[in-house]
Amino acid sequence: MGLELLSVIIPTAGRRWEELRRCLYSIEQQDRQPAEVIVLHNHGKTIPNWLKSGVINVRAKGTIYEGFNAGVKAAQGPWLMMIGDDDRLPHREWLKNISKYLRLKTPWNYVYHRIIPTEYDGSIHRGIVPPLTGKNKLVAQMILQCRHGIVSHSGAAYRKSLHDEVGPYPEHLLSQGDTWWLSKASLMGRLKLKSYYADGPIVGGDNAGQRVSKNSVERARAYDLIEEMVRNGA
């Protein structure tokens, strides 16, 4: 029970097919399968044959976050999971482990994995956010990791209704848009969280898309917008 409610969404605009193939293989090897896998791309009719079966193909031009938003619109399930096309699920029971928390009547709307067996006892986990000064590029990590202990948005599951409440991912950003979106959800007080222990993080690749995400100018831009949200109280 649970996975029949889950739509896995993988944006792949402008990225290498081999990374995506490894990502999809890690899903195919799961002990249990989700209701659907949606791949968003901007490659028109040039997609390889192996991508034409077993997944739902949606063409989405523009940034990766335009792909995220298009995937949300296309998804049929009440629960969504975003996975980067260069990410891979680390073991065969990843989806089965999360499925037990995906029920229509559960109180939470965001289920994420921890790689620490128990919750932090120190002040870092009490939601303490230091005074903001200038271009504080740690604002997003402080909100998401210190307040909630969230490791990564990739591989987490959340209700489609949460997306309706918070709004779309920021399509004008090239990097850290998912961090911006989660920070906004947190500041709005919309997150109803459930964490579970995972024995390893999502495995990431090293492709052109990641090099874009490491661009210091774009990253700083995203954090500036997050800091502005904090100052304005979302």
* Major beta-sheet overview: 7 strands, mixed
Weakly predicted, low-confidence segments: 116-137, 206-214
Tell me what portion of residues adopts beta-strand conformation: 15-25%
Task: Tally the beta strands.
Answer: 9
- Shape summary: globular
Number of domains: 1
What is the CATH architecture term?
A: Alpha-Beta Complex
Head-to-tail CA distance between termini: 36 Å
CATH superfamily label = Spore Coat Polysaccharide Biosynthesis Protein SpsA, Chain A
Radius of gyration: 17 Å
Arrangement of strands in the largest sheet = 3-2-1-4-7-6-8
SS content category: alpha/beta
Please provide the ordered H/E string of secondary-structure elements.
EHEEHEEHEHEHHEEHH
Provide the CATH top-level class: Alpha Beta
Range of helix content: 25-40%
Mean residue pLDDT: 74
The CATH topology assignment is: Spore Coat Polysaccharide Biosynthesis Protein SpsA, Chain A
Question: Can you give a write-up of this model?
Answer:
The protein has one domain: Spore Coat Polysaccharide Biosynthesis Protein SpsA, Chain A. It has eight helices and nine strands. The protein has helices at residues 17-28, 64-74, 94-99, 139-148, 160-166, 177-187, 208-213, 216-231; strands at 6-11, 36-41, 56-59, 79-82, 87-88, 110-114, 157-159, 193-197, 203-204. The strands form two sheets. A seven-stranded mixed β-sheet has the order 3-2-1-4-7-6-8. The radius of gyration is 17 Å and the shape is globular. The model is unreliable at 116-137 and 206-214 (pLDDT under 50).
